[in-house]
Design brief:
This protein has 384 residues and is mostly helical. The chain is built from eleven helices and four strands. The strands form two sheets. Strands 1-2 form a two-stranded antiparallel ribbon. Residues 1-6 have low confidence and may be disordered.
Length: 384
């Protein structure tokens, strides 16, 4: 996080603090098994941290499953007795969450070398090409990173509040601690991908800014500088492809779990508020949990869509050069090559090459969640 340390400004200082907290938190939980080599200005894999992360997180998951099963055998919520379908859905959701957590941590362990190459490429781009551009603040990066940190902290607090506010639910301190650590581990894994997409957006945003300045200064355009920007743009596009390959399975599982979680939360509210006709602080806490889940889900959609749209802006900016006169042959060739690449290089975050994470997918997932909720209500209407 040191390379992004700000020069001034409250938001910049806050962002640097968030990056530092994410880095040290990932080290503590064994989610970032890399150490920095100051001489080479590169990261390297620490096998000790790698094994520590795998053992720690699998141990936390195993203990949490054991304690949760023991608690389920001793007591049963009234809502589950009132609506057996809700209990089955809750069990299915728990299994999905456990499988997602296991796969995410296993992929983090197996794909550490692939992630290492991505991190080192980010460092190389920052030190060799974008270090001099740090005077340019990137307000949207700061805004989205601050929002993401708020959702992570709020979701952790809400997780504790839901279990303690739920009537007839007994949650021990150890179970609450294990749930928070497990949830924080998943949130930090998602944050790693989120940061990668944001930094790619930042690189493309800087390149677009440089191209816009060059288009306004027609007398000082250098073919050599255009080729340098083209080379950087190509590297950033390749970095986006590597990031997508490394995180597409984890992101698919997280998005699917979030979609299913929102359906369960709303269905639980319907059973508790309408079927059982109970009103308490628990309803408010659960509703707050739903809003946080939607906010967190939508942030991922917005960031991926923002990066895609920023990549498309490069083609529009390069068209400004077509209005310039007296361009030499080498410069015109470089601009044409850049235009061809920017028109074909799409900064999309796709899941398995099928679904692009953007506004369209976000709206479709929200509509789908409401449809599935409607199916549940219709299927179990007599028990409501």
């Amino acid at each position: 996080s040191e390379m992004f340390r700000p020069r001034r400004g409250f938001c910049q200082n806050w962002v640097w603090l968030i990056l530092s907290a994410a880095l040290y938190g990932s080290w503590i939980l064994g989610l970032f098994p890399f150490i920095f080599n100051a001489r080479k200005q590169q990261m390297s894999v620490s096998q000790c941290l790698r094994l520590y992360g795998l053992i720690l997180n699998f141990f936390l998951i195993a203990i949490l499953i054991y304690i949760n099963n023991d608690a389920n055998h001793t007591s049963k919520l009234d809502a589950f007795q009132r609506n057996p379908l809700l209990e089955k859905i809750n069990i299915l959701m728990g299994i999905m969450s456990v499988v997602s957590a296991i796969v995410v941590h296993l992929m983090n362990f197996l794909g550490s070398k692939q992630i290492l190459r991505i991190v080192n490429e980010l460092l190389a781009l920052e030190y060799h090409h974008f270090g001099a551009m740090n005077l340019w603040n990137c307000p949207k990066l700061n805004c989205f990173l601050i929002q993401k940190s708020v959702t992570i902290i709020a979701s952790t607090l809400t997780l504790i509040s839901v279990h303690y506010a739920m009537p007839e639910n007994e949650t021990s301190f150890l179970m609450s601690l294990l749930m928070c650590l497990t949830q924080m581990g998943l949130n930090l894994n998602v944050l790693h991908c989120y940061l990668g997409v944001l930094f790619i957006y930042r690189f493309v945003w800087h390149i677009n800014g440089q191209l816009s300045d060059l288009a306004d200064q027609s007398d000082t355009i250098s073919a050599r500088y255009i080729r340098e920007l083209l080379s950087i743009y190509r590297r950033v596009f390749e970095l986006n492809r590597k990031l997508q390959t490394a995180y597409e399975l984890q992101m698919a599982l997280i998005l699917l779990s979030g979609l299913a979680g929102n359906i369960v939360v709303v269905f639980f509210l319907i059973v508790f508020e309408i079927s059982m006709q109970k009103s308490s602080i628990f309803v408010v806490v659960f509703f707050n949990c739903l809003l946080l889940n939607i906010w967190d889900f939508w942030l991922s959609i917005v960031v991926c869509d923002l990066t895609e749209r920023t990549g498309k802006e490069t083609s529009a900016i390069l068209k400004l050069f077509s209005n310039l006169e007296n361009l030499d042959v080498e410069l015109e060739r470089s601009i044409n090559e850049f235009s061809w690449l920017s028109s074909h290089a799409k900064f999309r975050f796709q899941l398995f090459g099928l679904f692009s994470v953007n506004y369209n997918m976000g709206f479709n997932m929200i509509i789908t969640s409401f449809l599935y909720l409607l199916y549940l209500v219709q299927f179990d209407f007599k028990n409501l």
